[in-house]
Amino acid sequence: MSSTDRAAATVSASPAGGATLRSKLWVAFVVLLTLFFAFFVVRAAVALIGAGGALPVAIGVSVIVVVALGLALIGRELLFGLQTERLAAILEAEEGLPEDDLPRSPGGRIDRAAADAQFAGFAEAVRAAPHDWRARYRLSLAYAAAGDRPRARAAAREAVRLHRVG
Question: What is the pTM for the complete model shown?
């Protein structure tokens, strides 16, 4: 593989749907922007708490709690992205990722009927090996291809959990 091919592979999306460099930079920008605003919001909340009085203190504490909760959720999503990206890299190295050969519309959308037809094989693999994170991760990709994002995320979370335990 030439250095140009390696650079293109690093920037382009992986077959598992890995993020492109552009989307990673966008996420970093949005997270930094959120942290910037969170800093100033927490400063204002601390000033409210310092002003004294029941209402300003209650508002200040509430604002800090909401900001902390928001930052924790962002952290959780970033961790989820890193974990699933790591699983995709392992499967790619093992040549265990499913081929991205589903027919697409001219706009790039996956043909839903073809994705649904392919889904049955991945669901059967999970039924045959319910504790195999690889099968569960492939199922998450099949859910995503079929357009079922909530189940795709749930299956990916389960794949991460199964990988972690063993």
Answer: 0.74
